[in-house]
Design a protein that fits this description.
The complex is a heterodimer of chains A (111) and B (114). By secondary structure, chain A is mainly β. Chain A has no helices and eleven strands. With 114 residues, chain B is mostly beta strands. Classes of the chains: A mainly beta (111), B mainly beta (114).
Chain lengths: 111, 114
């Protein structure tokens, strides 16, 4: 069963706006990762945040992690049409190396 | 350096046939993972290899699915007697040391069972 649940399932915004996606999970984790997927093929790793971290930045990306609420958010600032993709959170649930993925948020950025 | 590669990129097969999917991980990565993604869904974990340890097969959906990793590098996922519900994109990933490391994904193999 999927551990992560993402919200919203789909998000449509205008170029230049910020996009926020949320992820909730159920069990204790070592880390949480965000991935991006274009056209249903390979995933691109965006950012990894460890369980003892609360916030992390990478370029236009900002990720927060609240382990007390078992939730994370991904913020993309100043969005571009090229950011259009599906975004997945994935947790490492301390059960070996496998990742448990959420269902994803489909982001559409309109020029 | 080279990323994770998978072959074939697309595979169309008839119900009941066996298929083999190949994954070449990033050189030096000791951990290798297989996932599958059905249309419009998130990724489902299948199997995980870490070094010389026994693989974690807990995600394999049936005994028609098997995987091996030869020489700690290349891996093959085999699906026997394919069914239409096996149609999905099969994704392979590798990481340097396994748990808690970033996983790098290949482009996937799109399997269609007619």
């Amino acid at each position: 069963s999927q551990q992560g649940e993402e919200d919203p399932q789909a998000l449509s915004i205008q170029e230049g706006e910020n996009a926020t996606m949320n992820c909730s999970y159920k069990t204790s984790i070592n880390n949480l990762q965000w991935y991006r997927q274009n056209s249903g093929r390979g995933l691109v790793h965006l950012i990894l945040i460890r369980s003892n971290e609360r916030e992390k930045h990478s370029g236009r990306l900002r990720v927060t992690l609240d382990t007390s609420k078992k939730s994370s958010s991904l913020l993309i600032t100043a969005s571009r049409a090229a950011d259009t993709a599906s975004y997945f959170c994935a947790t490492d649930p301390r059960q070996g190396g496998k990742l448990i993925f959420g269902q994803g948020t489909e982001l559409s950025v309109k020029p | 350096g080279a990323g994770v590669s998978q072959s074939p990129s697309n595979k169309v097969t008839e119900k009941g046939k066996d298929v083999e999917l190949r994954c070449d991980p990033i050189s030096g990565h000791t951990a290798l993972y297989w996932y599958r993604q059905s249309l419009g869904q998130g990724l489902e974990f299948l199997i995980y290899f870490q070094g010389n340890s026994a693989p974690d097969k807990s995600g394999l959906p049936s005994d028609r699915f098997s995987a091996e990793r030869t020489g700690g590098s290349v891996s093959t996922l085999t699906i026997q007697r394919t069914q239409q519900e096996d149609s999905a994109v099969y994704l392979c990933a590798s990481s340097r040391q396994g748990s808690a490391d970033t996983q790098y994904f290949g482009p996937g193999t799109r399997l269609t069972v007619l």
